[in-house]
Design a protein that fits this description.
There is one protein chain. This protein has a domain of 73 residues. Helices cover 45% and strands 0% of the residues. The protein is an all-alpha fold. The protein contains four helices and no strands.
Length: 114
């Protein structure tokens, strides 16, 4: 059984495959500077699929409901103006589920240790 943290592993992979990630760093200071910039962008600008295309900052600061309300207004306005573009003219477009919604809180079955 592995004791690795899957969230950290995923974040490390994102870091490692970042287009601006250098093969090596010239110094510890350069590595710290790069990581500080990367993690700031990762938390404040990068929209995460697992967070309903929100940034971690938006979710953790409690702004998710406000952002979703604004998205709903924009989608409704777009649908009203261009309903002929919809396959089913009665249905409204939707966006990914908000973090903490029922679809994302389903319990995962426990892993076996074998």
């Amino acid at each position: 059984m592995s004791n690795d943290n899957p969230y950290r592993e995923s974040q490390f992979k994102t870091l490692k495959y970042c287009l601006t990630f250098p093969g090596t760093f010239a110094s510890l200071e350069q590595a710290r500077e790069f990581c500080a910039e990367f993690f700031y962008a990762y938390n404040h600008h990068h929209r995460h699929a697992g967070l309903g295309l929100l940034t971690p900052e938006v979710v953790h600061s409690g702004q998710a409901k406000t952002v979703y309300a604004r998205r709903a207004l924009v989608l409704d306005a777009a649908h009203t103006l261009h309903s002929s573009r919809s396959v089913d003219h009665r249905s409204h477009p939707s966006f990914p589920a908000a973090p903490g919604s029922t679809s994302q809180q389903r319990a995962r079955p426990p892993r076996s240790n074998s």
